[in-house]
Specification:
By secondary structure, the protein is of the alpha+beta class. It has three domains: 99 residues, Butyryl-Coa Dehydrogenase, subunit A, domain 1 (Orthogonal Bundle), CATH 1.10.540; 109 residues, Beta Barrel (Butyryl-CoA Dehydrogenase, subunit A, domain 2), CATH 2.40.110; 141 residues, Butyryl-CoA Dehydrogenase, subunit A, domain 3, CATH 1.20.140. The protein has 13 helices and seven strands.
């Protein structure tokens, strides 16, 4: 690992910073100055499709400027409309965007589905899905987890039965993030119930307006609407919308999960959250008069621990991108980073609550007595799913044990 930028990387970093400074709409700069978005419901996709007029205008303006730069899909090959950036260039772009609280454009479709179609899709599928994903005509969500198949995803039971040139789908998905904002979904469905559970699964995509497909909201413990249940009742999907081979969808799905593994945005966000906390409780800071009068060494020690851990998290991210830049594929290293960063996010919020004591229980960010704009109590509640989404900490520990440490499977 070489922490220093090369001359070319330093020049690119300067280019990215200048672009953000000149192009990021005031709406997002104001959000960043106020500490960013509370909870898990906000972001570019919400602003773009469900936001108030000022939010929608800012999202469209930012989308246009990022697209003009060719940076909506930095990791896609240029032949498909991407920027064709090297892994390290992608890392620098994401790092600088996160430092500025500049929202990501394109969402899951660009970061996850697009690369999967590039690898496994037919020429016709590439022509149909890639441009529409890139220009945000197709906004995607992911249909993986089910009530009885979360961490053990291969146990999924949603059935797809072939009927001529179509598949008829029946079943249910759960924890479908952004399903209420998306107009297309990619999913894993069981097409051969007699095959071993990791086989007989197919990867297919569907229009959310297809008859029989319905979405019901799941409201979080913090009263946010981010996830959903999706139900399938005789939903007909053309066979031409299967990505990859029928009954080989598990491998297509796992290819999808190999993308976006450094999590540099999470590492930067954690560090920025701590920086804001420390600044706010310094003499003269906005929360200096509100912090606990009995702030003892143990609380200060916790803050110091979190700062050290945030640096560890950054180095996990840098290790992963260094491996990718060297042409190797991270495996258990990505599990280490995911588990560490999701648990660190929860610890940071708990530490923030301790710093302000009972004032941290005030939920309303507009209350003048709310500590740090109610950030820590709100963000702690919304961080609860962080150790579940994208693979639970228990699953990550199993991967680290078997693939990293070489321990036998139980």
């Amino acid at each position: 690992m070489d922490w220093a930028d090369t001359n070319e990387q330093a020049a690119f970093r300067t280019q990215v910073r200048d672009f953000i400074h000149n192009a990021l709409p005031k709406y997002y700069k104001d959000q960043a100055a106020a500490g960013g978005v509370l909870g898990g419901e906000g972001g570019w996709q919400t602003d773009r499709f469900l936001g108030a007029p000022d939010a929608k205008a800012a999202a469209l303006e930012w989308e246009k400027k990022v697209a003009e730069k060719g940076w909506v899909a930095p990791h896609w090959p240029s032949e498909y409309g991407g920027a064709g950036m090297s892994p390290m260039e992608q890392f620098i772009l994401k790092q600088e965007m996160a430092e500025a609280d500049a929202p990501d454009v394109g969402g899951q479709g660009v970061s996850m589905l697009g690369p999967t179609v590039i690898v496994h899709g037919t020429d016709e599928q590439k022509k149909r899905f890639l441009p529409a994903t890139l220009n945000c005509e197709m906004v995607w969500c992911q249909g993986y987890s089910e009530p009885g198949a979360g961490s053990d995803l291969a146990s999924l039971q949603t059935r797809a039965v072939r009927d001529g040139d179509e598949f008829v789908i029946n079943g249910q998905k759960i924890w479908t993030s952004n399903a209420h904002r998306a107009n297309w979904i990619w999913m894993l469905v069981r097409t051969d119930p007699d095959a071993p559970k990791h086989r007989g699964i197919s990867f297919m995509v569907a229009d959310m307006s297809t008859p029989g497909l319905s979405v019901r909201p799941l409201i979080s413990g913090g009263w946010m609407h981010f996830s959903n249940e999706t139900f399938y009742e005789d939903v007909r999907v053309p066979a031409a919308q299967v990505i990859g081979e029928v009954n080989r969808g598990w491998y297509v799905g796992m290819t999808l999960l190999d993308f976006e593994r450094s999590n540099i945005s999470g590492a930067v966000s954690s560090r920025r959250e701590l920086d804001r906390l420390v600044e706010s409780i310094k003499p003269g800071g906005e929360d200096a008069a509100k912090k606990r009068a009995d702030m003892v060494d143990s609380v200060r020690g916790e803050i110091a621990d979190r700062v050290i851990e945030s640096e560890v998290g950054f180095n996990y991210s840098f290790r992963i991108i260094s491996m990718q830049a060297a042409g190797t594929i991270p495996n258990y290293e990505a599990s280490m980073s995911k588990m560490f960063m999701s648990e660190l996010g929860q610890r940071i919020q708990r530490t923030g609550i301790k710093v302000f004591g009972l004032r941290s229980t005030i939920w309303d960010p507009t209350d003048p007595q709310a500590a740090h704009g109610a950030r820590f109590i709100q963000n702690y509640v919304h961080s609860i799913p962080a150790t579940i989404a994208g693979g639970t900490s228990e699953i990550q520990r199993n991967i680290i044990a078997t693939r990293g440490l070489g321990l036998p499977r139980a």
